[in-house]
Amino acid sequence: MKLPEPERREPQESTVPMINIVFLLLIFFMVAGTLTPESPLPVEPAASEAGEAVSEDPVRVLIDAEGRLAVAEEVVDGRPALRERLQGLLDEAPERPVEVMADAEADSALLLDVMDDLREAGAERMQLVTRQER
Fold first, then answer.
1. What are the DSSP calls for 67-98, one per residue?
2. DSSP character for 34?
3. CA-based nearest residue to 89, from 121, 117, 48, 124
4. Which of 37, 71, 87, 113 is the most exposed place for a label (fewest CB within 10 A)?
5. DSSP code of residue 45
6. Domains with residue ranges and CATH for the chain
């Protein structure tokens, strides 16, 4: 007796491994994309041969090449507004360090004026942020 030959079915390809890879890539890029917060002003700090690591949770003051100012990821209009904003931030936590990140092309007189404003606002600890020279 001859039995009929069964129909040949092609094996179905599983899409589960591909979905797993896509989700892993999505998670990787979500984590890698959030490592550094975006700066409100484009600042390229000056180079330095020596330095220390930056402290935890500082108030960051930015000075760009055109002399614009930003504090705590918010652009401010001039030094009086900077002083006012810093005063509010330092009243909440006076021991909090203040980091000043000035562009290498920024006016040094403005940098010194901003550091004076920081002292007037009550900053106890200030750090000038530079990039390490290689």
1. --EEETTEEESHHHHHHHHHHHHHHH-TT--E
2. T
3. 121
4. 37
5. B
6. 47-132 (3.30.420.270)
Query: Token pair of 125, please?
Result: 């600890």
Which distant-in-sequence residues (6+ apart) come within 8 Å of 99 by Cβ?
Answer: 54, 55, 58, 59, 60, 61, 126, 127, 128, 129
CA 2 to CA 110: how far, in whole Å?
98
Per-residue pLDDT of the chain (134 residues; tens, 9 = 90+): 788 888 888 878 888 999 999 999 999 988 877 666 667 776 766 666 665 665 567 888 888 888 889 888 888 888 888 888 888 888 887 788 888 888 888 888 998 998 898 888 888 888 888 777 66
Task: Determine contact, residues 57/96, Cβ cutoff 8 Å.
Answer: yes
